[in-house]
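dumping this here before i forget
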Amino acid sequence: MKPVRVKPVGVCLVVVALVLLSDSLSAFALQRSREYMGKPHYGSSTFRASRNMSHARDYSQDLYYYTCDTQTPDPELVRSGSTELGRNIDATKKELATIRKEYEADKEVLASLKEIQKHLMNAAAQHKTLEDHCQMETFDGTAGMKCCSDITKELEKAIAEHSALMRKLEIRELAKSKKETKSQK
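structure:
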């Protein structure tokens, strides 16, 4: 078997191809790293609020189905799920307070946040009722299902309002970005 020799011309072609390819890829990278477009980006308060609301809704739905499917729900398991549900509702409230500070001059955003807060307060009130049921010696599955159903409904309304707010912010930021791009030309 003959040893394969690397020809300098072949090496040069590979290097040139890599340079051209890296220039093309860097142009795409610049497009993707545009300024914040109103979307909840990882690490932002809007992202964390969205994630916490979704987690709270998931816990509420899981508790609902657990109490629905089980004849005698384990009170400790229900308490654990309820604790996490409450923790996520509280975390969402904290993130909304941060968002409120970020957009304190924007009345439209504040109105949406007020609506989201209203739904979270209703969910928190139902969660308090669920917690009261969890403290009883025997957990009433039917009452727990009703609480979880009401919590889920309120959280879904809050999530829908939050999504609408994110779309508004995205449209606003996109229009602002286009305006800035036109003024730079």
